[in-house]
Known about the structure:
Blueprint: E1 25-27, H1 43-54, E2 59-66, H2 86-99, E3 102-108, H3 116-119, E4 123-124, E5 134-135, H4 138-157, E6 162-166, H5 172-177, H6 192-195, H7 197-209, E7 215-220, H8 229-241, E8 247-251, H9 270-273, E9 281-285, H10 291-299, E10 304-307, H11 309-313, H12 317-323, H13 336-341, H14 346-352
Parallel strand pairs: 1-10, 2-3, 3-6, 4-5, 6-7, 7-8, 8-9, 9-10
Helix pairs in contact: 1-2, 4-7
Amino acid sequence: MKEFTLPDILDxxxxxxxxxxxxxxxxxxxxxxxxxxxxxxxxxxxxxxxMRAEGGFGLVMTAAAHVEAGGQGFPGQLxxxxxxxxxxxxxxxxxxxxTGAVSSVQLHHAGIRSPADLVGQPVGPSPDEETGSRQLExxxxxxxxxxxxxxARRTAEAGFDGAEIHGAHGYLxxxxxxxxxxxxxxxxxxxxxxxxxxxxxxxxxxxxxCPSDFQLGLRLSPERFGQDLGEIRDLAVRVMEGGxxxxxxxxxxxxxxxPEDPNVPGxxxxxxxxxxxxxxxxxxxxxxxxxxTAQGAIDAGxxxxxxxxxxxxxxxxxxxxxxxxxxxxxSLPVSRTHLEAEGVSPTFQDYLSxxxxxxxx
Length: 361
C-alpha cells in the first residue's frame, strides 16, 4: 500500500476549477482604505497587491470590495459595483497574472455595519436600533443578490481568476445567517435554511453567470456577531458538498482558539477540518505568522492558510519561508519607513496605527 504523506505548505494546490495555486499561502483580504472615494482602484492599492503577488503568494485577494454603493463599509474602500471600476481592475488582474499568482476579488456588503456618514441610512435583514438601520424589503434583498452576481461578472470581465463571497464578520450576509440579527418573516428569514437562502442564491447565480473555470470561494466566521456555531458547521457542509464552491475560507481569529461554547469539545479549527468537504478546498485564517503554524494548519487537515499580519510586514513572506524554514517576521512595532518599503501606503499606515503596538510613532 502506498504511504500517504501530508502536503507541504509550499506544495501546489489544484482546485476544482481555475488555475492551481503554486503554493498554499493566500493573501488575506484586509481592510486598508487605500482606494478612491468612488471605489476606483488606486495606484497605492494596486502596488500593495502587486508586491504580494511578486512576493510569492499562491492566491492574491483584494480587500473587501463593496457590491453596492450603499453597502460601503469603510472610507477608501475598493468598489466593484459599477462598470467604471472594471478598467483599473483589469490592469491589476493582468499584472498579478504575470507573476504566476492566482487573483481574486472579495465581494462585500457591510449591511448594518455601514457607517451612516458614508451611506446615509444603513440597511440589514431586520431593523437595528443601535445602528439606525432599516429592514430591506424582499425586492431589495433580491436586488442585493443580483448586485453580488453582477459584481462577480465584473470581476470575471476584468480578468480575475475568481472571487470570494464575504459571508463573515457580521457583515450583511452574516447578518442574514444570524438567528439574532435576522428576524424576517419572508422567505429570507425564519429557520436556518431560509436565513441562508440569500447566500445560496448568490452562489448559484455567480456559478450560472460566470465562466465555467471561474474560481469561487466563500468566507465564513463561526462565532461572534450573532452566529451559531452548529448552524455554521451545517452550512459549511452544505456548501462544500454542494460542488459549486472551489474553496471555503474559515476566519477563526486564532486557529488555536477553543469554541466559546464550553460544551463543544476540541479546538474551533477541528470543528471544520472534521467535516466532509467533497472537492472543496478548506482554508483557515487566524494568527498564522510563521512556517510552523502554517504547516500545523495543513497537518491538521486544512488545504491552505490565509496570511494577514505577516503579509503586511513582509510582502515576500512565502519566498522567505521557502528560503528559510525558521524565518520569523520582524517584531512589532515597526517603523513607517519599514512599512513604506513593504508597499504599505501612508493611508494604510494610518489605519494600522489604530492597532496597539503595530506602528512605531
